[in-house]
Amino acid sequence: xxxxxxxxxxxxxxxxxxxxxxxxxxxxxxxxxxxxxxxxxxxxxxxxxxxxxxxxxxxxxxxxxxxxxxxxxxxxxxxxxxxxxxxxxxxxxxxxxxxxxxxxxxxxxxxxxxxxxxxxxxxxxxxxxxxxxxxxxxxxxxxxxxxxxxxxxxxxxxxxxxxxxxxxxx
Length: 170
Fold this sequence. Notes:
By secondary structure, this protein is mostly beta strands. It has two helices and 21 strands.
């Protein structure tokens, strides 16, 4: 496909490290699994690199942590913080002073207005729209196309326009 060799599953990780490989990137869509594997790799001594498309826009004052992916067309505005292992996907827009937690995935075409907080492990689905100042709780999922106009609690699924909680998750 891309010409990048795949060495195997995570059981082979000690070998490259022993051979001097020190940088890695975890390319897994599942937020929980990506979080777990990134933490394991960091604890094993690997430095998790950032994968940032040259076709993304990132404000100079944005703070980007380790192991993140920022895809083509993504926009990250001033004073935004992107946590470890997060994914800002294709054409997603994260406006000023947002805080994106560790292992989040901001899906393609999502738009977060200013000062939005997306807590650890959360997935705002494709095309989600979030108004200013909203907090979306940790390990929650917001369905595709939802309009988030009030805070969403931790560990739940919310869908619709306006978004409403339909399920508590564990």
